[in-house]
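#struct-help
A.M.: can someone run this one for me? Single chain, 117 residues.
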Amino acid sequence: MRSASAEARRERGSVTAELAVALPAVAAVLAICLAAVLLAAQQVRLSDGAADAARALGRGESESAAAAIAARVSGAAVRVGSTNDGTFVCVTLSAPAAGLLAAIELRASSCALAGGR
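D.P.: on it. Structure tokens below:
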């Protein structure tokens, strides 16, 4: 029959070993959650930039001015595409995600009335 103190000594390091095994998994989950939040924030900035650029083109500003507005608002190196069908001016922005999720391409589109109305 073993004594209680012998059993306690034998299992003394087990909590430390379990923590050492679980800690990298917890850190990975936290990193993925942080990357997802940053991805969502970048998507919102792209949407705002597309809306501002579409309004600028709708007012009659040049494409380079609209691209500068989009880059300033979105805070990233964006690619700007626009279409004008006479009634609406539509802008599409695309940019790679930052950080751990850099392989993901983000896109945002917005349209505004042409002619500044």
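A.M.: thanks! The longest helix spans residues 14-58.
D.P.: also worth noting: The beta strands are 79-84, 88-96, 105-113.
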